[in-house]
Amino acid sequence: MNPSPTPASSGPNPPPLEVHDLTVAYHKKPVIYGIDLAVPEGSLVGIIGPNGAGKSTFIKAVMGLLPHTSGRVRIFGKPYAENCHRVGYVPQRESVDWDFPVSVMDVVLMGRYGRLRLGQRPTRADHEAARECLEKVQMLAFANRQIGNLSGGQQQRVFLARALAQESDLYLMDEPFVGVDAATEAAIITLLRELKEKGKTLLVVHHDLSTAPRYFDRLLLLNMRLVAFGPTAEVFTSDQLQKTYGGRLTILSDVAQSIGTAP
Amino acid sequence: MRKRLLFPALLLLVLGLEPAAAARIGTLSETGTLERVARFFALEDASLRYALVGSALLGICCGLMGAFLVVRKLALMGDALSHAVLPGVALGFLWNMTRDPVAIFIGATIAGLLGAGCVQLIRNTTRHKEDAALGFVLASFFGVGICLFTMIQNLPGGNKSGLDKFMFGQAAALGRADVLLLGAVAVLAVGAVFLFYKEYRLTSFDPGFARSLGLRVAFFHYSLMLLLAFAIVSALQAVGVVLVSAMLVIPAAAAYLLTDRFGTMLLLSAVFGLCSGVLGVFCSFIGRNLPTGPFMVLSAAAVFATALAFGPRHGILSRWWRQRSQRARVSRENTLKALYHVLEDEGFRTEQVTLRQLAERRRETLEEAQARVAAIQRHGLATRNVDAVAMTPQGWQRACEIVRNHRLWELYLTHAAQMAVDRVHDDAEVIEHVLGEETVRQLEKRLNYARKDPHGKLIPGVEDIRQGAARPARRATGFGKEAAQ
Fold first, then answer.
1. Is B71 on the interface with A (CB under 8 A)?
2. Interface residue B73 vs chain A (CB under 8 A)
3. Predicted ipTM > 0.90
4. Cβ–Cβ of A102/B205 closer than 8 Å?
């Protein structure tokens, strides 16, 4: 039952995301340990695990937002910095100040910045693309609104539209279902499935175990280390969930604690 | 674009007009206030021109940088940085014992960046958060600065004149070199913000996302901090160490109240900074060389107070006005509802209501009823002939909507929320005025398009409302007849 990563295939079609022995620490205290995995193209992966399991840390580390203690990340066979234009990102909703003086349209246009040169203004085509993305999440009517005047579900859809505007091949989403109403949740999952049908690869941090098997075709069970990764039917078993949620690896977290407090 | 061209033009104007033997501000003998106002607008004194252009430039710089501080919630950072530069000013003076703007600029910038570095260091290596670190750095650097200043005052020799002005600011002490320096900083700040507007805005709003795009967030952060340090240091002479942070925060805070767009906020903030700077010089000039710093800050505070009072969305007055007009609307809608109720009691056999009936229904005096009718008349919701009041199609439509909202809500509360029938009226009195059409559609669906409210009265449906609005004459035959049965 050990996490057995598929061997690193660096042939003509490298996987969208390949992680080798990734370890990340906050203030010297390890948060995730030795993650190995290769995500096949066109999969919709749910990242699940208890609070503090390092789910957000994992996707942030993939993008290099957090420094790696050790390990290697390859996006379509190249380091992140060389292929960042192929990655779309939906941060946690609470990570920004929603009173910031920008409109919905401004935020969605930010998704196009990766394709623009430094100092270059968004073109007419970018505006057109942003408008289409807003249409897809049914937020076009709100384009000129300041982002604070939106409900939680609407704000989440704005972030989603911004990621869509990136027109990426790999999407990393941090808790896109938190604080949204049922209608928005259904709309989001439909959209994610459409992206998957188009051959995009998606990794979604998710906290709701009851919906996880319905939403995702692969699951990544995470609790400081990789518990399991594979097709939902194989991985979503009581045995694996017990390993992920129940019985903490006391020694592992204790040692991490003492490393963190060591001088 | 236009702003970028403005600076060189202004600078040329000042430098070209420099007469050799112009009087220093305040060197003339006592004159009346009016005379001084006239002299101010005549712009004959070279030092006044320097003071004005310098203050305008520093206002623009501080306004721009302040806008970033405010949206990044770093207002205290400006305060700490401005106090941290003081030892640098003293050391810059000690360099060659004169008030050389470039030496002081370099010294102050280094001290400011050192202070910012200390804040970062304390935050990263200790348990303290940013606020404690800022408090510590602000006070200790300022303390060192005061010590050095006292030492300098006690030193023999050297041209110490003007050094004391760094505390509270004196725009009149600005010279040609100071204005050139201010101009350079302004061009740099405006140019950087204009060129990298998109990047600065994104890294301020969502640094995580910016990094995921491969942007060098740290570079943009530190370049902004450097520009901030430049703005503070160049503004010191005119505003003073103590108050320069106010010039950063107040214009930006006022602009933040007035707009929901970052670009507009930058522009407004720069304009407010400029106006505050110029007004400060004006007040200082009229008041015979009082320190400029406090007057600039007070001018900025006046701008802020005006924005707070008159801002279109967040302003106190406009909020009061909105509340007032909302109350007036609720009152009109209550009048329409009362008219509807009277008509309903009559079985919709007539379309007219007398003032007396209205007054009785509302339990008010005839005069009050008259005022009510006058209000809805003004809005084209009813017409009145001597004693008889009749609703216009729009009035009828709105009345139906209000009654429908009220009864739907009562029904919803008794059905869905299991509340007692006698408890729901008061709640519905409030809700009826705020229910949107979309919510009404949902309510109707949820209640299976029920026709009667909990008290057994008919709920006007879409058809009744539309029919009434289009053909008021047939009201009694359609919905009214049913009600009369």
1. yes
2. yes
3. no
4. yes
